[in-house]
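Narrative of accomplishments. A recurring question from our advisory board has been how the design workflow behaves on a single, concrete structure rather than in aggregate. To address it, we present the structure tokens for one chain from the evaluation set, followed by the sequence designed for it. No filtering or post-editing was applied between the two.
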């Protein structure tokens, strides 16, 4: 444990001394008392918004965190940052802002914490981008911090969730579901607050953040509504005051081995491909060298154990009911698959945190034993080849098979592809290619949940592959390959494809190829011209100008030399 000489190192600059009387006067107006100026000031970054069920309850949770900070001897200062809803904007131009919001969230937390001189930070996130956004800010600021997950939603009627609705749209288009049936599913799938119910991106990233050591044990596997989550927030507030006094900072926790732990847990849970993108981005902010090939290296020895949606049978609330991810982590640690010496925000090591955790009860079927995995190695498959020289990421659970070859059906953007799928113009054996959806070309690297759900809803899940320089929702399943790099907008090979080109995806061989002679690819490249950008103004234009390759996390700033590799 490290010890700080001055736990108020940052706030002293703003509130101590005669010259800072104006600052103190301003703070008195928002509730500071004389004694508060002597306490560590802890910012609470709330992602509350009444525009999505994922975050609609986080205002109340943020106040619980403030109470924990104040009870622990700190002074809480509550502020808000943004959120956007992937589930609402999915399949529309609004989805271009989703990944962009990750950068805005990280930037805004950095800006407020830096300007306000906070000594520590609690971040509370509930949706896909504000979870990694909070973690990126914490790594960047490197001030004592704890992340709190807003919690998972409870299942709807007949164990429905948001993916039930997306896939119902495809079933309706195929004539398999009536108008009344579609409306009934729409009305009953989302019962209240919390993040999407399966092992989609929010639950995946919450689990990854806990495995990194940035959350208190158990934070990732709690329902959004209940005393457990309120208590988690209060304890997080108390913990960050303790971390400030002890001088334990995020980069003491976010080591290379901690990221390896996070990758291991994501694989064992069958988590979202977005974890690749977000862990690369968080590692970049922490100054840790993490690359696509690390997911392959770790994935060779880590099995998929959790039978969770979208590819499996169970919901996150059902995993919560049997103990969450802590028993899973203990199982993995016992098998030598986790680094037990990694520090966490408890001030203790992972081994110490897990020491008294009970194992799963006998008879449960949600998490398989290591001796009987769902898949013996990772479902997150990094592919290379002449179609993806910098890499691509596939989600192959084994149910889809490990190889697909077919004729390209090329679409410039998601909307055109979705319309063609719903209209029945995509047939068995096709490889759907959706391009101009990368970080720069989109801009914003939209998630392809609408077309993948349309494929599943029309009953083509095992008969059609989909490839894109965009990305996928954690709710997507089927034979899908995303993050193809370089993207079409910068002249990547995906931008050279034509209808009818033969494409093969070999998950076992980790290869994705277009079966064209090198000379033909060179000829097409010589004739290639960039597509007209989607927009030239505002935040999307700024993002498109700054963002890097998906193979490096789609970070919206120039990639700098890594500071360390610990």
């Amino acid at each position: 444990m490290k010890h700080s000489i001055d736990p108020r190192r940052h706030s002293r600059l703003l509130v101590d001394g005669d010259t800072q009387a104006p600052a103190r006067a301003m703070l008195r107006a928002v509730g500071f008392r004389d004694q508060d100026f002597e306490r560590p000031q802890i910012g609470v970054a709330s992602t509350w918004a009444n525009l999505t069920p994922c975050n609609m309850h986080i205002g109340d949770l943020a106040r619980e965190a403030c109470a924990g900070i104040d009870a622990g001897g700190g002074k809480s200062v509550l502020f808000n940052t943004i959120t956007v809803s992937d589930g609402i904007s999915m399949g529309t131009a609004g989805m271009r802002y989703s990944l962009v919001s990750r950068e805005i969230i990280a930037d805004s937390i950095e800006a407020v914490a830096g300007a306000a001189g906070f000594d520590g930070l609690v971040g509370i996130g509930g949706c896909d981008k504000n979870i990694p956004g909070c973690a990126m800010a914490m790594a960047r600021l490197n001030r004592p911090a704890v992340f709190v997950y807003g919690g998972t939603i409870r299942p709807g009627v007949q164990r429905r969730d948001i993916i039930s609705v997306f896939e119902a749209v495809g079933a309706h288009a195929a004539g398999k579901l009536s108008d009344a049936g579609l409306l009934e599913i729409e009305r009953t799938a989302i019962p209240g607050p919390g993040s999407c119910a399966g092992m989609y991106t929010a639950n995946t990233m919450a689990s990854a953040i806990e495995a990194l050591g940035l959350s208190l044990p158990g934070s990732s596997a709690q329902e959004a509504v209940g005393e457990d989550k309120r208590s988690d927030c209060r304890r997080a507030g108390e913990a960050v005051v303790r971390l400030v006094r002890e001088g334990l900072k995020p980069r003491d926790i976010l080591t290379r081995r901690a990221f390896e732990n996070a990758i291991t847990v994501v694989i064992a849970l069958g988590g979202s491909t977005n974890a690749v993108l977000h862990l690369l981005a968080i590692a970049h902010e922490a100054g840790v060298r993490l690359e696509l090939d690390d997911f392959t290296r770790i994935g060779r020895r880590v099995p998929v154990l959790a039978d969770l949606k979208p590819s499996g049978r169970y919901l996150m609330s059902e995993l919560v009911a049997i103990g969450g991810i802590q028993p899973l982590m203990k199982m993995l640690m016992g098998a030598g698959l986790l680094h037990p010496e990694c520090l966490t925000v408890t001030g203790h090591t992972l081994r110490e945190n897990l020491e008294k955790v009970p194992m799963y009860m006998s008879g449960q079927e949600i998490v398989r034993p290591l001796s009987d995995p769902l898949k013996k190695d990772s479902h997150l498959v990094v592919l290379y080849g002449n179609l993806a020289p910098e890499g691509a990421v596939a989600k192959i659970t084994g149910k889809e098979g490990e190889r697909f070859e077919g004729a390209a059906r090329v679409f410039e953007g998601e909307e055109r592809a979705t319309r063609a799928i719903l209209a029945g113009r995509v047939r068995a054996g096709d490889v759907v290619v959706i391009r101009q959806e990368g970080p720069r070309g989109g801009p914003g690297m939209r998630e392809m949940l609408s077309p993948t759900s349309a494929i599943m809803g029309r009953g083509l899940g095992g008969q059609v592959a989909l490839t894109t320089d965009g990305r996928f929702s954690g709710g997507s399943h089927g034979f899908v390959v995303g993050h193809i790099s370089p993207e079409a907008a910068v002249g990547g090979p995906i931008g050279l494809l034509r209808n009818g080109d033969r494409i093969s995806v070999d998950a076992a061989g980790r290869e994705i190829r277009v079966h064209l002679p090198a000379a033909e690819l060179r000829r097409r490249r010589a004739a290639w011209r960039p597509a007209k950008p989607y927009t030239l103004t505002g935040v999307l234009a700024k993002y498109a100008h700054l963002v890097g390759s998906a193979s490096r996390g789609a970070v919206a700033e120039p990639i700098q030399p890594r500071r360390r590799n610990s």
